[in-house]
Structures are given as C-alpha cells and as structure tokens.
Amino acid sequence: MNPLSPLFALGILLIALATAYLINLKYTITNAYPARNENIDGLRGFLAIGVFMHHSAIWYQYVHLKSWESVPSNFYTHLGETSVAFFFMITAFLFVTKLLNAEQKRISWNLLYLSRIFRLVPMYLISVLILVLIVMQLSNWQLKETATRFLSELFCWATFTLAGGPLINQSSYTNIINAGVVWSLPYEWLFYFSLPVLALFLSRKSISLFYVVIGILFLTAFFTFKHFFWHHLASFAGGAMAPFLIKYNPWKVNYKSPLFSIIIIACLLAIPFFETSADPACKLLIIVIFNLIALGNNVFGILKSAALRFLGDISYSTYLIHGIVLFVFMYFIYGLDRAASLSPAQFCFIIFGITPVLVLICFLFYTGVEKPCMDYAKKIRIGKIGSGPQKH
Q: Which sequence spans correspond to the domains of the chain?
C-alpha cells in the first residue's frame, strides 16, 4: 500500500465511517437539524474526508521532497479540487432554493446574514487562533517583525483572507499548518453577498435595496482586487440548476432509480481521467453528479448512511481543522525527519491512526462550538431572543 493508491483513501474512509458510527451510537447528532436533503448531508460527509485524503497524500510528498503541491495522481487531485467544487454547488443549491421559495417564505436578510456569521465565523476564528498559536510556538514566542505588521496580518486572516492571507510572523509554515484550506472561504462569502443581487431576478418580493447595494459593492471589490478563477463560479452555477429543476420541471422523473445511481458512478469513474476539475468536460460531469444527487438519488442508499451524515454534520470543522491535526502530528509528535524515513506503508498506517482522532476532535468542535452557535442563531430567528418574533 502507498499514499497514492486508492486503497489508502478507502482505508481512511472506512476508519472515519467506523469512528463516526461508534460516536453516533452514544451521541446522536445526525437528527439535530432535520435535513432538507439528506443526500446532500451524506455527500458533504464524504467531501470533507476527501479533502483530508487529498492533503494526507500531499503530506507524504512534503516530508520526502519538501514540496507542498499537488501529487502526481489525478485521483488524489480530484479528492481535493472536486470535493471543493461540490461544496460550492451545495452552497448554491441551498441558497438559490431559499430565493425561489421566497414567495411563500419571505427572506429576512438581516437574519440570513446573522445566521451565516454564527455558522461560519466562530469555528473559523478558532482555527485561525490555533494557527497563530502554532506559528508563535514555531517562532519561540518571539515577534520577527513589527507589532503593527503582525496585527495587520492577523486582521487579514480574520477577514477570511478577503484582505489577503499573508505569512504570519514571517513563518513559511503558515499555509502548511492548515493545509491552505481557507482559499475557498472568500468564494463562499462572494456567493452570499451575491444573493441580494440574484434576488432582483429570482424573487422580487425579497429585494432589500440596502443589501443589493452592499452586494454590488462587495462583488465589485472582489472582482477588482481579489485573485479568482472563473471555473469556481461555474461550480456555483452548476449547483444553482437543481432548485430550478425541482420547482419548474414538469416531467415526473424518478431520480431514485438505480439507473441514475449507475450514471453517477460512471461519471465518478470518468473524473480521474481529467487532470483538473477546471476542465469544462470534467466540470460538466461534476454538475451532472451533483444535480442527480440533489434531485433525490442516494447512490444505492450510500448517501443515506447515518455515519456518513454524521461526518456531514462535522464537515466544516473537519475542513478547517484536518490540516492542523496533520501538522501537529507530523511536526510536533512524529517529527519531520522521522516522518521522512517512513516507508509508504508505514505512512499509510500513521494516517489511519490519525483518522479516528481527527473525527473525534471535529465532533468535539461541532458540539462545543458549531452547534451552540447554530442553536443561538436559531433562537434569534424564531424570536426567542430579542423583542419578539421575526419574519424569515
């Protein structure tokens, strides 16, 4: 076995599922928030673990070659790139659905953005705090630059790197510590701020002039100053298709049919033939897969797995924290020099051992940080906090 073999990814997945299953027996969280689409929750669980697999393979390359870049494997490249493309599609699917349903359920933009803040900000800031603490430990708790510059770097990171993602305290390990995962979060905020503008075309009853102006200003600044790739916007567009098909498609199609499960699997098997998810043909395959899942296909019941949906619940923590867990194990616990002497099989078994620890840590972050914040935002939405009931 080696870190570029599909068997390595399969081993990580099975261990993660087994760990999730055991934790979920005692602490059930999969039903804490009734899923609008349980297939999406199951997909989300696989995606977060897929990104972990992707960076685990990169770590094997890094400890041997000191090169932090994609590994020479289309399969492991797509575990990272395509997983993020699916994450973008999930975001578009959920919020375009909200816009299309606004005729029956008017959107409160204040509450929408408040819920996004409570959902994304606390866990993100905790991950950045851990990142900073690790950087300072590597720096022997000494500033290697002026305090003003250091504080400006912290500010940039606090903005989800919308204002930039500079090295912290001149540490070359800054982006390796968290595996550089935060690059995708500005795109998420880009989509959230585009929602009021989209509402101009999709839901005139939910227009807020204030948020339309804010959205236009944000979009203008993003496309002017932020380096971006258009193919990520294609992912959002692909995810936005399913809500229209659900609402306006006049044909009665049974998307749960095994035929569509076979199509999904065939598309998945075809994706590794492309070097990158940015390839238009590959992107089309990803869009087909996602839309069939969003329309109801559960891939022979796999996506309905309680363990997979458990991993879906903790996926945000997994996405933000897995790189940090890998770094702590490889740098502080195992040591880079010692890790460089590991055989491929030994490295695989080290990652197998890290996997249940990662799932447990992310479960604790979910129950200790994410869920309380989501519960608080929910209380605000239903009017249990504040002056009275709110429309939403």
A: 6-381
Phi, psi of 91 (to 5 degrees): -60, -50
Percentage helix, strand, coil for the chain under 3-state DSSP, each rounded to 5: 75, 0, 25
Residue 132 is encoded by which pair of tokens?
Answer: 């900073």
CA gap 196, 262 in Å, rounded: 38
Query: CA-based diameter of the chain, in Å?
Result: 65
Q: Taking the model in full, what pTM does it have?
A: 0.94
Kindly state the tokens that stand for 388.
Answer: 């009275």
**Across all residues in the chain, what is the average pLDDT?**
93
Answer yes or no: are the C-beta atoms of 196 and 215 closer than 8 Å.
Answer: yes
At 370, list the tokens: 């994410």
**Token pair recorded at residue 95:** 């919020």
Residue 207: the pLDDT is: 81
Half-sphere exposure of 256 (CA within 13 A, CB side): 7
Q: Which H helix or E strand runs over 49? A: helix 38-65
* 35 touches 309 (CB < 8 A): yes
Contact 31, 304 (CB under 8 A): no
pLDDT > 70? residue 307: yes
Whole-angstrom CA distances from 201 to 205, 213, 392 are 10, 15, 20
pLDDT of residue 392: 35
CA-CA distance, 59 to 351, in Å (whole number)? 10
- Number of helical H runs and strand E runs in the chain: 17, 0
Q: What's the CA gap between 330 and 353, in Å, rounded?
A: 12
- CB atoms closer than 10 angstroms to residue 382: 11
CB atoms within 10 A of CB 78: 23
Tell me the Cα Rg of the chain: 21
DSSP letter string over 303-324? Answer: GG-HHHHHHHHTHHHHHHHHHH
Cα 87 from Cα 256, distance rounded (Å) = 22
Q: Give the model confidence (pLDDT) of 118-153 as tens digits.
A: 999 999 999 999 999 999 999 999 999 999 999 999
